[in-house]
Design brief:
5-stranded mixed barrel, alpha+beta, OB fold (Dihydrolipoamide Acetyltransferase, E2P)
């Protein structure tokens, strides 16, 4: 004779635990996004380095990791209404968050567009300019509302 044991968790309890885990995940995501400040203005070059010129004509120097600097130095983005996420280290100096945080945006036609790069040959999206790692063809600037394909 086979004895069947029931699970200590019923379906309702499992669903409640899943909902709680989802809530905690969403809370963590929103807290992570809230930890950054925003700097917005026209992307310019000042003394050979990237900067933002605000609507009040204030100049904010931008720094960050190599991948971020590669994007900030992309000539195709010069003169755009640009936003970076990160932290002010002083009123005129902004440290941009690491590239994996997706901290760079262009505002165009009332939309906030994420800065991405696309290889149309290999169908590979990257987040810094340069040659495709597969075919070595130069990637195209591809401003996106989201990172979904």
């Amino acid at each position: 004779m086979t004895v069947m044991r029931s699970s200590p968790y019923n379906g309702k309890e499992v669903l409640t635990r899943l909902r709680f885990a989802l809530f905690l995940s969403l809370l963590a995501i929103s807290m992570r996004a809230a930890q950054f400040e925003s700097a917005r203005g026209t992307l310019i070059e000042r003394d050979g380095k990237p900067a933002l010129e605000t609507a009040q004509h204030r100049i904010i120097r931008l720094t960050g990791e190599d991948a971020v600097i590669d994007v900030l130095n992309d000539e195709r983005l010069r003169g755009t209404d640009f936003e970076a996420l990160g932290h002010f280290s002083s009123p005129d100096h902004f440290e941009v968050a690491p590239i994996y945080e997706r901290p760079l945006f262009v505002h165009k036609d009332g939309k906030r567009l994420m800065v991405t790069y696309w290889c149309g040959t290999c169908y590979i999206r990257t987040y810094r300019p340069g040659p495709c790692w597969c075919c070595h063809k130069e990637t195209e600037l591809d401003l996106r509302e989201s990172v979904d394909p």
